[in-house]
Design a protein that fits this description.
By secondary structure, the chain is α+β, with helices and mostly antiparallel strands. The protein has helices spanning 2-48, 54-79, 84-105, 151-155, 182-195, 230-247, 265-268, and strands at residues 119-122, 125-132, 136-141, 146-150, 159-161, 167-176, 206-212, 217-226, 256-261, 277-282.
Length: 284
C-alpha cells in the first residue's frame, strides 16, 4: 500500500513539474496528426486531377505524409525537453529509409483492385465494398447480407470491378421472326436507344445482326451510358423495347416445337420399318 502511495506521489510531482510541457506536447501531437491526415487526403484529390497514375499519386502523397509526421514527432518531443540535434538526425534517417523502401518496394506490394464504395464481383459474391483492412474486406450483397472476405482469397481469385471505368456498354439483344421486317426492327431499336437521354452520343448507338438462329433472327443494340446509370438504364431500355416492338407490330421469335404425324404410312411413302411420325425441334 505504501509503495502504491509513493508511486502516486512521484507521479504527482512529475505532473507538477512537467505537466504543462506534457499537455503542450500532446496537443501538438494530436493537432499535427489531424493536419497531416487532412493535407495528405487533399493532396491526393489535387494530384488525381493532374496525374493519372495512381501509384505515383500514392508515393508522392505518402512521402509528404511521412515527412509531416516526422516534423510533428520532432516538435512534440522537443516540447518535453528532448535534445533537437540527435533527435532530428535519428528521425530524418528513419524518414529517408521509409521513403526509400516505399519507392522501391511499393510497386511490388499487391493492392486490392477496388476502393470503398465500388460494386464488385469476387468469386460467387456480388455487392458493394463497405470497408477494407489489412486482413479482410467487408462486402455487402444486394440482398442485405454482409460478408467478410479474406484479402488473400480476393488476390488469388478473379475480381470484376463494375465501377473502375466511367462508362459502360449496354447490350439490348432481341430475337425476331424470319417473316418480320429486319430493316424496320433495326431502325426501331436504334431509335429507342438514341431517344434515351442517358445514352451517350459518342460512341453512337449501333444495331447489329448477331445470328441467324433456328428460331429467328437475333439482333443486338449496343450503346454506352455513365457507369452509375447502367443498371436502371438497361432495365428501362429493355422495357421500352418490348412496348415499342409491340406497338410497331414486330413479332418476337421464341423456341418452338413442330410435330408432324402421319396416319397413313403408305400415302406418306414411308417404309413399314420407319417410325409413323417425325418430330422436328427448334431450340435456342
Amino acid at each position: 500500500m505504501n509503495e502504491q502511495v509513493s508511486k502516486l506521489q512521484e507521479l504527482g510531482k512529475l505532473m507538477q513539474n512537467h505537466g504543462l510541457e506534457l499537455i503542450i506536447a500532446l496537443s501538438v501531437l494530436v493537432v499535427g496528426l489531424f493536419i497531416t491526415k487532412w493535407t495528405v487526403r487533399n493532396l491526393k484529390i489535387l494530384l488525381a486531377k493532374i496525374i493519372k497514375n495512381a501509384a505515383t499519386i500514392s508515393i508522392i502523397s505518402n512521402s509528404l505524409g511521412i515527412i509531416l509526421l516526422a516534423i510533428v514527432l520532432i516538435t512534440a518531443a522537443m516540447e518535453i525537453g528532448a535534445k533537437p540535434g540527435p533527435l532530428i538526425a535519428f528521425i530524418m534517417i528513419v524518414v529517408l529509409c521509409a521513403i526509400g523502401v516505399m519507392v522501391i518496394f511499393r510497386p511490388l506490394i499487391p493492392t486490392l483492385p477496388f476502393k470503398v464504395g465500388n460494386t464488385v464481383k469476387t468469386g460467387d459474391l456480388l455487392g458493394k465494398i463497405e470497408a477494407t483492412t489489412l486482413l479482410n474486406t467487408r462486402l455487402k450483397t444486394f440482398d442485405g447480407k454482409t460478408f467478410f472476405v479474406p484479402n488473400r482469397k480476393i488476390l488469388d481469385d478473379v475480381v470484376i470491378n463494375y465501377q473502375l471505368t466511367k462508362t459502360r456498354r449496354i447490350n439490348v439483344d432481341v430475337s425476331i421472326r424470319y417473316d418480320q421486317d429486319l430493316a424496320k426492327a433495326k431502325q426501331v431499336l436504334e431509335a429507342i436507344m438514341t431517344a434515351d437521354p442517358r445514352v451517350l452520343t459518342k460512341p453512337a448507338p449501333q444495331v447489329y445482326v448477331l445470328k441467324l438462329a433456328s428460331h429467328g433472327v437475333e439482333i443486338g443494340g449496343r450503346c454506352w451510358v455513365n457507369n452509375a446509370k447502367y443498371w436502371v438504364a438497361k432495365c428501362e431500355l429493355l422495357e421500352k423495347t418490348k412496348f415499342r416492338f409491340d406497338s410497331e407490330k414486330i413479332k418476337f421469335a421464341y423456341p418452338q416445337l413442330d410435330v408432324h404425324h402421319y396416319k397413313d404410312e403408305e400415302s406418306a411413302g414411308l417404309d413399314t420399318k420407319e417410325l409413323p411420325w417425325e418430330i422436328q425441334e427448334d431450340q435456342v
